[in-house]
Amino acid sequence: xxxxxxxxxxxxxxxxxxxxxxxxxxxxxxxxxxxxxxxxxxxxxxxxxxxxxxxxxxxxxxxxxxxxxxxxxxxxxxxxxxxxxxxxxxxxxxxxxxxxxxxxxxxxxxxxxxxx
Length: 116
What we know:
The chain is α+β, with helices and mostly antiparallel strands. It has helices at about 1-20, 60-65, 80-90; strands at about 20-25, 25, 35-45, 50-55, 65-70, 75, 90-100, 105-115. A five-stranded antiparallel sheet has the order 6-4-3-8-7. A three-stranded antiparallel sheet has the order 2-1-5, with no helix packed on it. A hairpin with a 2-residue loop joins strand 7 (about 90-100) and strand 8. The radius of gyration is 16 Å and the shape is globular.
C-alpha cells in the first residue's frame, strides 16, 4: 500500500513539474534574454475559470499573449494563485503588481522575474 502511494505521488509530482507554458507558440522556459514578464488574469466569458495573458515583449494582442500548453490549447486556472504556482514551478518569482486601465476596465498586472 505504501509503495503504491509513493509511486502515485511521484507520478503526480512529475506531471505537475512537467507542465510547460507556451505563449504565442514559444516555450517560456527556453526563451533567451527574457528575464521579466507581466501576467494578467481575467475571467473567461460566462465561466468561473481564469485565463492568463503573459507579456514578455512579444506583442499586445490577447492572441499573442494567451498562455497555452504544448498543443496550443488555452490554459485555464482556478485562481490567480494557481497561475502563480505554475509560474513558480517553471522558474519565475513574483516581484510586484500594478494596475492598468484599458478601454474603461482596470486590470491588475503581476510582474515576475526569472529566478536566479
